[in-house]
Amino acid sequence: MAEDLTAQFSELVINHPDNLRSICHTYISDPTPLEEKNLGRIFVLIEEHNHNEFAQELFKKIVETLDYEYYHGTDFDMEIAFENALQKLNHTLQELSSEYGDDWLSGFSAVISVLKGEKTHFSAAGRAQAFLIQKDKIIDILSQGSSGGNINPVRIFSSILSGDLRKNSSLLLGTESILEYLSQDRIRRLVNETDSEGVMKKFDSLLRGNASSTNFACVLIKMKNVSAETQGQHSKQKSSNSPVEAKKRVADSMSSLINQERQTSELLSPSLWPNFRKRLKKKDEVVEKKLDDDDDNDDDDIESEDREEDVGAMKEERAYADHREKGDHREKRGKRKPSANKNEAWQIILKKTWEITQKVILKLVSLIAMAFQALWSFIKRQKGTGKKFRSLNGNSGIIRNTARRIKNLPRSRKILLVVALVFIILFAQSVIFQDKKQETKQEGVTIQKNISDAAIKIDEAKAALLYDNENGARAFLLEAQKLLQEIPATAENYNETVVPKLAEVKTQLDAVNHVKTIDSPDIIADFSQVFSDIKLKKIELTKNTLLAFDEANGSIYSSDITNPEPKTLISRPGEDTTTVASNSDGKNVYILSKGKTLGTLNIDGKTVQDVAIGLANGANIVDFAHFSSRMYALDAQNNQIWKHAASGTGFGNGEKWLQEDINLANATSMFIDGSVYIGGSDGKIIKLFSGSTDSEFTLAEIGPGLGPVTAITATENGDKLYILDSTNKRIVILGKDGKLLEQWVLSNLEGTKDMTVNEDETFLYVLHNSQVYQLPLGQ
């Protein structure tokens, strides 16, 4: 059974009377049980660096606006209600700026949060702090999205972050000054040591003892098991041994209030409430009249009202609260009588207007009908004469005779005909225009919905990253990207609304996918200096010598990486170097030629000597590797890896190494360090051990997905795999357990051919056309 969680929360405010430079304020809402069940609680923390009467008015306006707009709105979706409340709050703060100026914004900091169950949404302005604390780590939630204190006076609270507070997680809202006296690590340890009330007591003691007259404020929310907490507790404390104002409150967020709701259900019951409300609203004759009109249906409605949900009861409760607030004002002004005479006057005006409109419409229809009748009579007369129009131009004679007949019509009929044609044209245009208008309107609604949904997905991705859920964040970002890409570039304000969102999604995806772009890597060797028509296919590094193999003429070129000077090592006309493998000690380089002959390269002697090897008949060897005195050949034709043991100066016949059926038809490259790693043209990476699939290897989700693997390389003692994905112009660096570590995008290198790494893994070498690029590792 899933454990029920409850929120334990407390607040601390320290305002020193001799510190007039700033003032802090916190607020935790106290909703009714039904309001909390539907919308949760509001948490507010504010700091203003203008300690005067305006600051107090500012706090009051913010709290009153939030509390009323959030709990008295028309929407019961938590996120939408919060967005609407923030919009109203922004409008209220703009009005304050119009009255007092906007200088106060430079010293204003605030963070506002709403919490219902585990779901939380919050928005911040200025330099306020928010930390997510989970056991051994603390995350500064606002650090990446911080505006550095710069506030937009038009939209002070401009964005919303969303997420879930899970078991044993805590959310701490605080003023900027708290980090001057408590490190993040110390905050984490204090929060994890005890309950929220105990944490506030320790904060109070530490801050008052070390911070002289500095003002502080913080709000702490801790998620605990319901069974681990005392039900129904609600405490609030103040410091008694200091002029410092310090208040703390600890309470369950849901369970105690639900019990209270059950105990008071009779007072809030929807079945009794309508009659109770009717008696209260007799003071207002207009409202009383409306209730009297509905009284006949009251008996039939009582049974359905008994079945209303909590949201319905909450609406009734709000209606009563609003009416009660307005009642006193109405009593002071006196009772107002319904304006019956005004209503009758408006009814007469509307009736007369409708009668006139009907007459105009009937007249227009009559005119159109007469015009069509005249036209039809004319066509019938033409048919009755039995005449045939003759013309050298065929139908043009009919047109001329029709025009002449129309010309001979009486003036009144001509007018009717013209009016009819005009109305037909106007009607057709209006229909077309209306369709286009409706289509444009619907397209606009769809675009706005896509933008809104994409923004939600981006926020969900940020929340997932807080919990190190990269796969979840990647999925949310890809959904957001898809929604934005569905919007046509011709849409209104596309560059202002859609393009920035797409850029934000790309930035977030690059971060999730560990992408680094390399625009201008260093060239370590350019073999076109040796032969301009060179066609290199493979490279190999042995000690400090970089070898390059020409697939067109079989020649081998070399360059010292410590003193690059490309030169021809061996010229082998007519040979095709199919693939290359090197010994683990770096002494020997083996070459498999097109004719399936194996040779070993003597670099000092600049010769290639044939080496005996018993390759299987009909084998399609796409790659091979030398490991532990054995040669392993990757056979894509027979879905097999052949193991050739050393025999004299060569290698014997191949033995089947695989112990299970594995599809190797798409295999392109192989590396061996005791385990066997195979890359394929289908973008798959396979890890094998002792002839079978390694069940502990799980390839991470990579975005975008891997294209055909051009090369796979590593070192025997290293813990990384290097994958060359030429199609996507990148190098993917994996752990040997399959975890994604980095992606390097080679933005200007399209069509790379091969890659190798030096033994101490300080540099990667990538072949592109006739040039070899050197990429530093570990930076």
From TrEMBL:
InterPro entries reported in the protein's UniProt record: 6-blade_b-propeller_TolB-like, PPM-type-like_dom_sf
Biased composition (Acidic residues): 293-309
Transmembrane residue ranges: 360-379, 415-433
Keyword Electron transport: no
Feature: compositional bias, Basic and acidic residues: 310-331
Organism per entry: Candidatus Kerfeldbacteria bacterium RIFCSPHIGHO2_12_FULL_48_17
Compositionally biased tracts (Polar residues): 228-243
Gene3D superfamilies to which the protein is assigned, alphabetical: PPM-type phosphatase domain, TolB, C-terminal domain
Keywords: Membrane, Transmembrane, Transmembrane helix
Designated name of the protein: Uncharacterized protein
